[in-house]
Design goal:
With 399 residues, the chain is α/β, with parallel strands linked by helices. It folds into two domains: 184 residues, Rossmann fold (3-Layer(aba) Sandwich), CATH 3.40.50.2000; 177 residues, Glycogen Phosphorylase B (Rossmann fold, 3-Layer(aba) Sandwich), CATH 3.40.50. The protein is built from 15 helices and 14 strands. Strand 12, helix 11 and strand 13 form a beta-alpha-beta unit. The protein is globular and about 65 Å long.
Length: 399
């Protein structure tokens, strides 16, 4: 049995799903599975259409790269990947193979299901985001719900549905997926991520003008599912405390609006920096004294912010801003490496943050608990996937 993963991004692209998929695919290849990944080809013509890296065969398909220009451009990018990936899959997959479909682009699993069935292969859904519900929540276009029965049917036809959290797994059960086919495999911090050296952190703080500051950081996509306005409310509430700085690291649809709001309020200690390459991730995450993780109300059961694991891996506390009845809030409370507040509790969150800034002992306690929470996440996921694939087809043959 060969294992095919379908996702729009893979190495050398660096979105979160690309990094998670690379870690898992390489771990499975080390265990003896024959692993292939079908992904888009980056704009650089230096990236080959096919190569083998760390035991994983990478099959890249040509796509358009117009998504940053407009919504129409992004839809065209999705469409070209659908066509290219499914065409490549049709010619590569054989009866008995396993096809693992991620959720970028949205509903890719529903599009791939008929083809996988025709090729008599095993279909597995690795669900990082729940569509079309996310699109409905963000756009208010309720007509998109007509796609839900198609998605539910594809889930029910699969040999397994792998959710990254218990909230998502519950939604799969409500969609009619038999419990025996639902698995929960939490995400993890990028492989090898650990706290950076004090010298590297001090150097970056100096370069970014943050020496002597208690740094509150948000690192990741500044997208619509992340509720970032409350963080600026907190920054406004503590603006008179000159030793607290806020840093946004990343790009996305909300960045320009956030910068404009910070500027209009005169928040001079709110800084913005572009997304950083994975090679610099340890330093940029360790730069912070505490990380912020957020979710927009209405999206809390539809997506899981994997940045939670990155922050924990570098032994930093987490401030979660979002609905209390969701998995990130429960994890932070259960493992005691931070605190959770709703978007209506920004005043209380500001007081908690100001108190933490002057309590280094508590910061260290939270950081130690965070590191314990994050340890061995990638290894646990690799074991679960190995057991699942072995159950489907017996012992794996060599790549």
């Amino acid at each position: 049995m060969r294992v095919f993963f379908l996702n729009r991004f893979y190495w050398p692209d660096e979105p979160a799903t690309a990094q998670l998929l690379a870690d898992l695919a390489e771990a499975l290849a080390e265990q003896g599975h024959a692993v292939s990944v079908i992904a888009r080809r980056p704009q650089s013509t230096a990236v080959p259409r096919r190569e083998v890296r760390h035991g994983v065969e990478i099959l890249r398909v040509g796509v358009t790269h117009w998504g940053r220009r407009s919504l129409a451009g992004r839809l065209i990018d999705f469409a070209t990947f659908y066509l290219g990936a499914l065409w490549r899959l049709w010619w590569c997959v054989h009866p008995g193979d396993a096809v693992v479909v991620l959720t970028d682009p949205p509903l890719l699993g529903a599009a791939a299901a008929p083809l996988v069935r025709l090729r008599r292969a095993h279909l597995l859904h690795w669900v990082e985001d729940i569509y079309p519900e996310i699109a409905v929540a963000l756009t208010r276009h309720r007509w998109l719900r007509v796609l839900r029965p198609l998605r539910n049917f594809a889930w029910r036809q699969a040999r397994a549905c792998i959710a990254v959290g218990t909230d998502m797994a519950a939604l799969m059960g409500e969609a009619g997926v038999p419990p025996a086919r639902i698995y929960v495999s939490p995400n993890w911090a990028p492989a090898g991520l650990a706290p950076a050296s004090p010298e590297a952190v001090a150097s970056l703080r100096t370069a970014w003008g943050l020496r002597g500051q208690f740094v509150v950081a948000y690192s990741g996509n500044l997208g619509r599912v992340h509720d970032l306005d409350p963080l600026l409310e907190i920054a406004t509430a503590v603006r008179d405390q000159t030793d607290i700085a806020f840093v946004f690291i990343g790009d996305g649809a909300r960045r320009a609006a956030l910068q404009q709001t910070a500027s209009s309020r005169g928040l001079t200690r709110v800084h913005f920096h572009p997304a950083q390459p994975r090679a610099h991730l340890a330093a940029t995450l360790s730069l912070a004294d505490i990380h912020v993780v957020t979710l927009l109300p209405g999206c809390e059961h539809l997506v899981f912010p994997s940045k939670l694991y990155g922050a924990a891996a570098v032994a930093r506390p987490v401030l979660f801003l979002g609905p209390r009845d969701c998995e990130p809030a429960r994890l932070v409370a259960q493992h005691q490496f931070g605190a959770a507040f709703t978007r209506e509790e920004t005043a209380a969150a500001a007081r908690w943050l100001a108190a933490l800034a002057s309590d280094q002992a508590r910061q260290r306690t939270f950081g130690a608990a965070a590191q314990i929470f994050a340890q061995d996440g990638a290894a646990r996921a690799a074991r679960l996937w190995h057991e699942l694939l072995t159950k489907l087809a017996g012992p794996p043959r060599a790549a």
